[in-house]
Amino acid sequence: MRRAGALAGVTTLAVMGTGIWLPGASAAASPSPSPDLSRFYTQKIKWSACEGDGASLLESESDATPVPKDKSIQCGRITVPLDYGKPKGDTVKVAMVRVKSSGKPRGSLLLNFGGPGGAGVSGLLSAQKEFEYLGKGYDVVSFDPRGVGESSPVSCGDAGADEQGMEGDSEDPGAVLDRMRKISEACEKKSGPILPHVGTVDVSRDMDVMRQVLGDKKLNYLGFSYGTRLGAVYSAQFPKKVGRMVLDGVDTLTEDVAEQALVSAEGRQTALDNFTKWCTENAGCVLGTDSRAAREHMAELIKGLDAYPLQSSDGGEFTGQDVVDVLGQALYSRQSWPALSQALGALLADGDPRALLRMGGALAEQAPRSPGDVPADNMAAALMAVNCQDDPDRPDEGSIEKEVAKLQEEFESTSAIFGKSMLMPVLFCFGRPAGTDYIRETVRDVKSPDLLLVGTRGDPATPYRWTEETAKRLGSSAVVLDNRGDGHTGYSGSKCVRDKVDGFLLYGEMPKDGSSCGSAEED
């Protein structure tokens, strides 16, 4: 549960906070490559045809003869230190993918699709057409961050499955915290030594190794959602190495885990309000013609299904939280709204949830696929690990138990629909050592070249105010583009945003600070 990945619908994770194991010397160490790191900065990457599940994404989906492999698409790996404070110790192999430029490249453009926990290799292979225009001027590159996908994936094993169903758990706070402690222990045991070293500070350092290995003097970067946090950290660690950098769907750098989850619930509620307003203004809306009544009806529907789930012939249940899950996915992209309206119509008119279930499955299929040998819970496990690694706050058990009832009331008053599901992430870091304070304390007033920050007004995951707050924190280098539309991130949903981002990355045409793009209809 956290920021969704890059393109709307590419991955659909809920928003949550950050925080976990101390990164050791890596967080405070000088970002400049030291002699001890020279073997990593001077390595050569061996590019070759993508294999395994990655290669399958390049094949024809029909029964016809498979499409010949595109020689412009290559996969490879680089080696980075497990712990940058101990560069002579263990290492990690980081998986990468490159789509070679169709024109004369000015270098590489590194992409991060978000998460945390989103795989970049499968993400780029499945969405490469979205970046064809940028590919005229760049080799487009992405990667699986350490702990994700094919880069030493973390896992919590069976304990991860227990965590997936804990929203709205009715146990007393002490019992819930005991379960969270056991999950934490299982994650540590299953993941091994990589677990304390998957935070954003270490991944940012990996990106600088990538920059050098790719042969670029400056890092050109396009980060979506969580990828904006990663880009901001890089700009603080390596300000003189920043080239053209775009941060789309801007993450917070300051708010604690509880506040982030609360803002997430608020953002999703705002997106749902926008959806109900859109629906009720269109003829035949299944929710009626009054947007306020429609919101109340939706809340009553979910509450009713939680109390009396629909039963399937195979003994399964369809609850209100199943509706919440699909809503959370569908609201990431305005293009999903018509289908969502129809699916809700089938549920309301006939008590038939199949259209919603199909929709949820289809949206999930749009997420980048991980190779078959990657643990099934890797995305969720990595999300928890990274967020906890990035957050220094660890209230003690007594404080949490006292606060749970108060937090529950606050979350549900913020959103009767999404508040319940967003409360549990507040507890995910319990039982784990405190994370680094580098992001919260040090990433500010960066001395890099100008950075383009794109914020979307109706974003359900990264609210627009985070764009404003992060821009203020980063200082005079931050240039804000205001996307007055809906959905998570702006690049895929707004032609105006896409044109301005492409113009900056390809030609250095930076929009004026505070300039805006209209709604999706105007685009």
Report the principal-axis shape: globular
Spatially, the strands of the biggest sheet line up as 1-2-4-3-5-6-9-10-11
- How large is the radius of gyration? 22 Å
**Main sheet summary:** 9 strands, mixed
Unreliable spans are 1-33, 60-68
Characterization of the model:
By secondary structure, the chain is α/β, with parallel strands linked by helices. The protein contains 18 helices and eleven strands. It has helices spanning 38-41, 53-56, 120-127, 158-164, 173-191, 200-213, 226-237, 257-280, 291-307, 320-330, 337-350, 354-365, 378-389, 397-414, 419-423, 438-442, 464-474, 495-507, and strands at residues 73-81, 91-99, 108-112, 139-143, 219-224, 242-248, 310-311, 317-318, 451-458, 478-486, 515-517. The strands form two sheets. The protein has a nine-stranded mixed beta sheet with strand order 1-2-4-3-5-6-9-10-11, sandwiched between helices. A two-stranded antiparallel sheet has the order 7-8. Strand 10 (478-486), helix 18 and strand 11 form a beta-alpha-beta unit.
How would you briefly describe this protein structure?
With 523 residues, the chain is of the alpha/beta class. It has helices spanning 38-41, 53-56, 120-127, 158-164, 173-191, 200-213, 226-237, 257-280, 291-307, 320-330, 337-350, 354-365, 378-389, 397-414, 419-423, 438-442, 464-474, 495-507; strands at 73-81, 91-99, 108-112, 139-143, 219-224, 242-248, 310-311, 317-318, 451-458, 478-486, 515-517.
